[in-house]
Amino acid sequence: MSCIFCRIAEGDMDADVVSSDDHVIVIRDIDPKAPTHLLVLPRRHVASIDEAADDGELVARVMRVARDAARAEGLDDGYRLVTNVGEHGGQTVPHLHVHVLGGRHLGWPPG
Ligand code: 5GP
Ligand code: ZN
User: Fold this and answer.
1) Taking a C-beta distance cutoff of 8 angstroms, is the pair 10, 4 a contact?
2) C-alpha distances in Å from residue 98, one per residue of 26, 38, 43, 63
C-alpha cells in the first residue's frame, strides 16, 4: 500500500490523530500553514473530490467531521475548508482530504 493516507488510516504510519470514527479520520498536518491545520480524510481510498462528489454520504460525513473538528479546536472567529484537486489545484497527496485552517486571518485569494 503506497498511499500515505491509506497507511495512516490503517495505522501503519504514525500521525497526530485528532479524532477518528469508522469512516473518517482527522489528523494534524505535518507542515501546518496556520495555527490550526487539520486534514480530514475518509478511511476508504478515493483520489479526490472530483471522484467522490457523487457519493453524497461520504461528502456529508467528511464535511460534518470537518465542521465538528473546527468547533472542537475553538475556531469561533472562522476557518477555511479547502480540498485541492490535481496538479493545478495543488494536490500533492492523491487521497481525498479536506484541510481545516484557522487560528489567524487567512488572506484571499490564495496564491
Ligand atoms: P495537498 O497538497 O494534497 O492538498 O495536501 C497534502 C497535505 O498533507 C500537505 O499540507 C502536507 O503538509 C500534508 N502531509 C504530507 N505528508 C504528510 C504526512 O505524512 N503526515 C501528515 N500528518 N501530513 C502530511
Ligand atoms: Zn489512499
Assistant:
1) no
2) 9, 8, 13, 8
Q: Please list the pLDDT of the chain residue by residue as tens digits (111 residues).
A: 699 999 999 999 999 999 999 999 999 999 999 999 999 999 999 999 999 999 999 999 999 999 999 999 999 999 999 999 999 999 999 999 999 999 999 999 987
pTM of the model: 0.98
Query: What are the residues whose beta carbon lies below 5 Å from ligand 2 (ion)?
Result: 3, 5-6, 45, 95
Cβ of 86 less than 6 Å from ligand 1: no
Active-site residue flag, 37: no
